[in-house]
């Protein structure tokens, strides 16, 4: 049976991207001792769970999302003793520790794959997905997410292996019960060490149809087609997640977050409806390109309403605007120029007023912005390089291709954390692995911690508020009709407590019908707190306020 997971509803989860958080030894790469040295900062912010992007052994083709040793720490991040100390130090501060679990694929440098590739009859032969050539070519027309075919030929076996992501990320064969048992035993090993939860990467792809039919989707500029019409969310994928839950998540009472593909609410429910015993909550992955082109407050309203009505009886929501795969939220949904501070606060007020568990991605709490590198060579992200190449193949000029990569690149969110105005933003004493945003002299944590009107202080207030306010952590939600698509009025109620969040998602003033704002209220947070006044009947650009109704 599913254990009592009510505690999950009280979490505020902070995502650390370890490479870029804090370097402790001057090699320009963030590490675990660096994270430990910043735990008091996270305590001050008020969060009670830390999600670490992968710190396992990895050749870093996809920055750790290609694992070559599931029970090892990548030496550039430190040692297993460092991880144990991190876990203890988090627990001492009342913080849960969540690790990324990347088991749709491993690295091609994992010992399983190195053995699997040698012949058709070695003990690990069936740990990956191997197929014979078809007419001397790839078994089908499927594209890899990072460009080119999803199949790579290995002469020793005379066969192709399947890789949804880069060719250094071969997909594991979940059809093989022995492989599944190895994975579950590795997960239990971490749970025994004190780990509290997993964020499970790219989980919708576990099961593939064994006959690998061609995709019917139009080809990409390089001639291959995505398999998204065929693979995500097949019934056996759900069966495997359920099994994972039964064998590991439930017995160890873990908090679990699935990174899923779910365009339809029904599919989202399959992952998180409590009676299905899969995940506690899900991060629906929508490729940044889709979101950037289709994002609008109207779409946001529709998505929130649909997932709220679907999950309010028996599910839960992961609330986030940012992670290591997306541009910076203030640059994408707000305004990273003249309204940077107010729009960063508005987005915080909005997100933390919704039902569900809020996620804070490192640097979001100080309003960090996108970084536009001037040459494609300055980018590290293989996705950004692929975006660039696809643009060139479609006939774009190098300038146009660079512009597209600048807007979409995952490196926007991966530049080092801006701690202070000192050299290298206080991130490292060495040469940072990825360029630091030059705006660090203005936007940095040190500037904000003691400023009661900073973006940091707004997050701190919102996080503290949730601890004593059931209307936020458990209340029901209504989204009121409003005069403008850019205006959100969200009502949260629990017993007699009623809260109202009013958020202007635009850089224009919006007049609000005075009937909507009650006469008597307590102001809890405002995005214009620096100005010291609020104007709820004529909201200024990105003005937002959270009110307790009296
Ligand atoms: C997930 C991760 C992303 C990674 C991919 C392959 O989407 O969030 O960073 O590149 O999976 O593991």
Characterize the structure shown.
Strand 7 (151-154) and strand 8 (159-162) form a beta hairpin. The protein is globular. The chain has helices at 32-37, 39-45, 80-92, 111-116, 177-192, 235-249, 265-272, 288-294, 297-311, 329-332, 340-352, 382-393, 398-408, 445-449, 455-467, 470-473; strands spanning 13-16, 49-52, 56-57, 69-73, 96-101, 130-131, 151-154, 159-162, 197-200, 255-260, 281-284, 318-319, 357-361, 476-479, 487-494, 497-504, 510-511, 521-526, 538-539, 544-549. Strands 11-10-9-5-2-1-13-12 form an 8-stranded parallel β-sheet, with helices on one face. Helices cover 28% and strands 16% of the residues. Alpha-D-glucopyranose binds next to loops.
List the helices and strands and how they pair.
Layout: E1 13-16, H1 32-37, H2 39-45, E2 49-52, E3 56-57, E4 69-73, H3 80-92, E5 96-101, H4 111-116, E6 130-131, E7 151-154, E8 159-162, H5 177-192, E9 197-200, H6 235-249, E10 255-260, H7 265-272, E11 281-284, H8 288-294, H9 297-311, E12 318-319, H10 329-332, H11 340-352, E13 357-361, H12 382-393, H13 398-408, H14 445-449, H15 455-467, H16 470-473, E14 476-479, E15 487-494, E16 497-504, E17 510-511, E18 521-526, E19 538-539, E20 544-549
Parallel strand pairs: 1-2, 1-13, 2-5, 5-9, 9-10, 10-11, 12-13
Antiparallel strand pairs: 3-4, 6-8, 7-8, 14-15, 15-16, 16-20, 17-19, 18-20
Bound molecules: alpha-D-glucopyranose.
Which bin fits the share of residues in helices? 25-40%
Mean pLDDT metric: 95
For the largest beta-sheet, the strand count, sense and barrel status come to: 8 strands, parallel
Approximate shape: globular
Number of strands: 20
Task: Give the uncertain stretches in residue-range form.
Answer: none
Continuous helix count: 16
Q: Give the amount of beta strand, in percent.
A: 15-25%
List of distinct ligands in this structure = alpha-D-glucopyranose
Strand order of the biggest β-sheet:
11-10-9-5-2-1-13-12
From the alpha-carbon coordinates, what is the Rg to the nearest angstrom? 23 Å
N/C terminus separation = 41 Å
User: Structural class of the secondary elements?
Assistant: alpha/beta
